[in-house]
Design a protein that fits this description.
Elements (H helix, E strand, L loop, with lengths): L1 H14 L8 H4 L12 E5 L3 E5 L7 E2 L22 E5 L5 E19 L7 E8 L29 E6 L4 E16 L4 E14 L7 E4 L2 H16 L20 H11 L4 H13 L10 H18 L2 H6 L1 H12 L26 H26 L2 H14 L10 H9 L5 H9 L12 H10 L3 H17 L31 H4 L19 H9 L3 E3 L6 E4 L8 E8 L2 E9 L5 E6 L5 E3 L1
Parallel strand pairs: 12-16
Antiparallel strand pairs: 1-9, 2-5, 3-4, 4-9, 5-8, 5-9, 6-7, 6-8, 10-13, 11-12, 13-14, 14-15
Length: 595
C-alpha cells in the first residue's frame, strides 16, 4: 500500500507538474530572502544517565524516565512516576549528565511538566566528553582544567530559562553529553523529556567496507560518520569548533565523501563558497597552501565524478590562480611564498620551518601537475604547457623534509622523492608517532605508494584505533599517542588518579576542552581503506576506467561497494591458501574494469 502511495505521489508531482511550494504568506516576501533548509532533523533519546549530583529522592527523583522515547509534547495531569524531578533547597544546585550514545551536530530539546506558572533557570553544558560538561566557567574564553571550553563558534555552555508545561530547543553545537543544573533555589523542576536533536544531510551510505578485522571495520565506519556529521549546509571541518569551510581541511573529507556518499552537492557548494569569498590575488582562508588544495580538490572531484560542466565553471578562477602561482617560484625552482599569507601545512608541523618549506614545494608541484591535466581537459593547451614546464623546473630542486612526516609524505606524492625513501627514512620511523589526524592520510598514501601497505594498516589500527579505545565515536582534531598513558575514557567521569585527556592536552588553537573531538580532516583511513584494501583505483574521469587491485596484507578477506556516477561497484577479495587473492566484482557496464 505504501509503495502505491509513493508511486501516486510521484505521478502527481512529476506528471501533473505539482511542486512543493513556499507557504503563501512567505511567498509574499522577496524570493531570495526565503531559503529552505537542506538538512533533516532526528531526535535522540538519552542512552544512559552518566552522573547525578545527589542520590536522595528529595533532591533528584526518577531520572530513568528520561531514557524513554519521547514526543516533544508537554502534557498535563501526569502521575509523578512519568517525569523526573530536581529539587533545590536554599543554596543547592542539583544536576545530572546524560549520554546520547554518539557525537552529533545539533542541540537539546527539554520538555517540562512543572505545575506552577513560573520559569526555571538552568545551566546547560554540552560536551564532546563527559569531563567537558563539568568545565567550571561559563564561556569566558578560558581553557584547560580550570576553565570552560569557550562558546567560540558554537554555544555549548550557557544559562537559559525553561517554561512551565512547555518545550524549548536550544544549543547548536557538536556534542554527545549534556549536563543540566537547576540554578534557582528553594524550588522544584519537573522534566518530562530531555532529547537531543541531530541535523544531517539525509543521504544514503552508498559505499561500504568490511574485512576480517573488526577494528578496521569500526575505523572505516567512524571516519565515514565523522564526515557525515560535518556535512551541514556547508562542509565543515568541525561541529563544535571550526564550523567553517577550510579548503585544505576539506581534501580528506572530499575523498571520504567520494568513497562513501558519491557526488554530494555539499562539496561543490563549499568549494564555490570559498572561491567567491576569495577574489584573486588573495589566498583562500588566508593560507597559500589552501589555494593549492582548492586545485587538488577540483582535480579529484572531476576525476571521481566527471562533471565537465562544473569544471568549466571554474576555468576563469583556476586560470587566474595558477597564473598567480607561476609568479611565486624563484629562478632556482624554489617556492617563493614568503610573506604570502600563512605558511602552513598542519598545526603539528607548523614550527618546523624547513619542513613547511618542503611541503609547500611539493604542494605547488602537485597543483601545477594537476592543473595541467585540468587545462588539457578544458582545451587550454598553452597554460597546460606552462604548468608542465614549471613542474620540470621545480623538480630540479629537492628540499630537505627535516624529519617532518607531513613534508616527506607530500614530497613522495609529488614525485619529488622516491616513496620508498620517504617511508623508510621518515614516515615509518617510530610507527605512527608524530602522525597527525589531518596529514596522517597523506602519510598513509605515501606508504601505499611505497608498497608498505602492512605498515600503513598497522598505523591505522594503532593511531586511529586508540581514539576508539578511549570512547570516541568520531575522530579528533588532533591526537598524539603519548596522551594515552594513564588517560581516562572520554565517556566516563574522570576517576581519581587518571588523566582527563580532553582537558590536559592540545596545542595551538585547540588547547584543553576547546579541542574538537569531531574533525572531518581526520577521516583519511576511510578513503584509504576503500582505495587500497577494497582496491578501487579511479583512472579516468567519472570512473570510466577503474583498476581493482587489493592489498590485503594480513587480512583474510575484504568486501564492499564503491559509488560511481553509473552505479555501485561491488567487490570481494578472498586470500587463498597459497597466499594469492581471488577477486570477484560486479560493475555497471559503462565502467571499464582493469585488474
Amino acid at each position: 500500500m505504501s509503495k502505491l502511495i509513493c508511486l501516486l505521489s510521484m505521478f502527481l508531482y512529476v506528471f501533473l507538474g505539482l511542486t512543493a511550494q513556499v507557504p503563501p504568506v512567505l511567498a509574499e516576501l522577496p524570493a531570495n530572502s526565503v531559503q529552505k533548509d537542506e538538512l533533516t532533523r532526528y531526535y535522540l533519546s538519552p542512552q544512559r544517565v552518566v552522573w547525578q549530583s545527589a542520590e536522595s529522592e528529595e533532591k533528584i527523583r526518577n531520572l530513568g524516565v528520561l531514557l524513554n522515547p519521547g514526543t516533544g509534547q508537554a502534557a498535563f495531569g501526569l502521575k509523578k512516576e512519568a517525569f523526573a524531578t530536581l529539587t533545590n533547597a536554599a543554596g543547592d544546585t542539583t544536576g545530572f549528565i546524560l549520554d546520547f550514545g554518539k557525537e552529533i551536530q545539533g542541540g537539546i530539546q527539554i520538555t517540562t511538566c512543572t505545575s506552577n506558572r513560573v520559569t526555571h533557570r538552568v545551566r546547560v553544558r554540552l560536551g564532546e566528553s563527559v569531563a567537558e560538561t563539568c568545565s567550571k566557567v561559563v564561556g569566558d574564553g578560558t581553557t584547560g582544567l580550570a576553565g570552560g571550553a569557550t562558546n567560540h563558534h558554537a554555544m555549548r555552555d550557557f544559562v537559559t530559562e525553561l517554561p512551565g508545561y512547555g518545550t524549548k530547543e536550544f544549543g547548536e553545537s557538536g556534542f554527545r553529553f549534556v549536563r543540566i543544573d537547576l540554578l534557582d533555589h528553594e524550588t522544584s523542576l519537573n522534566l518530562l523529556e530531555v532529547r537531543a536533536y541531530a541535523a544531517f544531510r539525509d543521504v544514503p551510505y552508498l559505499g561500504s567496507f568490511e574485512c576480517s578485522d573488526p577494528r578496521l571495520n569500526e575505523i572505516w565506519k567512524t571516519g565515514a560518520y565523522t564526515v557525515h556529521v560535518n556535512m551541514q549546509e556547508y562542509l565543515w571541518d568541525g561541529i563544535k569548533r571550526d564550523r567553517m569551510v577550510w579548503l585544505g581541511d576539506m581534501h580528506p573529507e572530499v575523498m571520504t565523501i567520494s568513497a562513501v556518499f558519491g557526488a554530494n552537492p555539499v562539496v561543490t557548494k563549499s568549494l564555490d563558497f570559498v572561491r567567491d569569498q576569495t577574489p584573486l590575488p588573495r589566498w583562500m582562508n588566508g593560507i597559500s597552501a589552501y589555494s593549492m588544495w582548492w586545485v587538488n580538490n577540483q582535480y579529484d572531484w572531476y576525476l571521481y565524478h566527471g562533471n565537465l560542466d562544473y569544471l568549466r565553471e571554474q576555468q576563469t578562477y583556476l586560470s587566474g590562480l595558477l597564473d598567480l602561482f607561476l609568479t611565486k617560484v624563484d629562478s632556482l625552482g624554489r617556492e617563493n611564498l614568503h610573506g604570502e599569507g600563512m605558511r602552513f601545512l598542519d598545526w603539528p608541523s607548523s614550527t618546523n620551518e624547513q619542513g613547511v618549506h618542503a611541503g609547500l614545494q611539493a604542494l605547488m608541484v602537485m597543483a601545477f601537475t594537476r592543473g595541467a591535466e585540468l587545462y588539457r581537459v578544458l582545451g587550454d593547451l598553452s597554460r597546460a604547457d606552462a604548468c608542465e614546464k614549471m613542474v620540470d623546473k621545480m623538480k630540479s630542486y629537492l628540499p630537505d623534509a627535516n624529519h617532518s612526516k607531513q613534508a616527506a609524505a607530500l614530497l613522495a606524492l609529488a614525485n619529488l622523492m622516491p616513496a620508498e625513501k620517504a617511508n623508510a627514512e621518515v614516515i615509518a620511523v617510530d610507527g605512527p608517532k608524530n602522525f597527525s589526524t589531518f596529514y596522517g592520510y597523506y602519510m598513509l598514501q605515501a606508504q601505499a605508494k611505497a608498497g608498505d601497505h602492512q605498515t600503513a594498516m598497522d598505523n591505522i589500527r594503532t593511531f586511529w584505533g586508540a581514539m576508539l579505545d578511549l570512547g570516541a565515536t568520531t575522530f579528533w582534531e588532533d591526537f598524539n599517542l603519548d596522551w594515552i598513558e594513564n588517560a581516562a575514557r572520554i565517556d566516563e567521569m574522570v576517576p581519581e588518579g587518571k588523566v582527563d585527556i580532553h582537558a590536559a592536552y592540545g596545542d595551538y588553537c585547540y588547547i584543553g576542552y576547546r579541542h574538537s573531538l569531531c574533525h572531518g580532516w581526520a577521516s583519511g583511513p576511510t578513503a584509504w581503506l576503500s582505495e587500497h584494501v577494497l582496491g578501487i583505483h579511479v583512472l579516468e574521469p567519472g570512473c570510466r576506467t577503474v583498476r581493482i587491485e587489493s592489498h590485503l596484507a594480513d587480512l583474510q578477506w575484504a568486501k564492499g561497494t564503491f559509488p560511481t556516477p553509473f552505479g555501485l561497484i561491488t567487490v570481494r577479495h578472498t586470500k587463498l591458501p597459497d597466499g594469492s587473492i581471488k577477486t570477484e566484482w560486479d560493475a555497471p557496464k559503462e565502467i571499464n574494469i582493469i585488474q
